UniProtKB/TrEMBL annotation:
Gene name, Swiss-Prot/TrEMBL: atpE
SUPFAM superfamilies: F1F0 ATP synthase subunit C (SSF81333)
Key words of the record: ATP synthesis, Cell membrane, CF(0), Hydrogen ion transport, Hydrolase, Ion transport, Lipid-binding, Membrane, Transmembrane, Transmembrane helix, Transport
CDD domains: ATP-synt_Fo_c_NaATPase
Membrane topology per record: Multi-pass membrane protein
Protein family membership: Belongs to the ATPase C chain family.
Subunit structure: F-type ATPases have 2 components, F(1) - the catalytic core - and F(0) - the membrane proton channel. F(1) has five subunits: alpha(3), beta(3), gamma(1), delta(1), epsilon(1). F(0) has three main subunits: a(1), b(2) and c(10-14). The alpha and beta chains form an alternating ring which encloses part of the gamma chain. F(1) is attached to F(0) by a central stalk formed by the gamma and epsilon chains, while a peripheral stalk is formed by the delta and b chains.
Annotated GO MF terms: hydrolase activity; lipid binding; proton-transporting ATP synthase activity, rotational mechanism
Compartment(s) of residence: Cell membrane
GO annotation, cellular component aspect: plasma membrane; proton-transporting ATP synthase complex; proton-transporting two-sector ATPase complex, proton-transporting domain
Transmembrane segments: 26-47, 68-91
Transmembrane helix in keyword set: yes
Site feature: Reversibly protonated during proton transport: 76
Identification of the protein by name: ATP synthase subunit c
Length: 93
């Protein structure tokens, strides 16, 4: 099992070092799209905490909603940057 994994790793490295540059582009694009996963986890956490805060103290709904929107925008910007990097790697560079 260990030898098979090592062979796959060596084959992947040899493929990346070959003259075909598109392989590295697509691997980089896939890695940059992982930012979307982190953003989704962050937005889910922020949303859950906002609902929890509203359940505890409904009088400050406007303040909590404003802070939720700012936090969601920050999380979404990370996902958008990751998407832009992926698109640039695949089609632009």
């Amino acid at each position: 099992m260990k030898d098979e994994f090592l062979q796959i790793l060596l084959d992947s490295l040899a493929l990346l070092q070959s003259d075909n540059n598109s392989t590295g582009k697509y691997i980089g694009a896939g890695v940059s799209l992982v930012a979307g996963l982190g953003a989704a986890i962050g937005q889910g956490y922020i949303g859950g905490k906002a609902v929890e805060a509203l359940a505890r103290n409904p009088e400050v709904e406007a303040l909590i909603f404003r802070q939720y929107i700012v936090g969601a925008a920050v999380c979404e910007s990370v996902a958008i940057y990751g998407l832009i990097v992926a698109l640039l790697l695949m089609f632009g560079v």
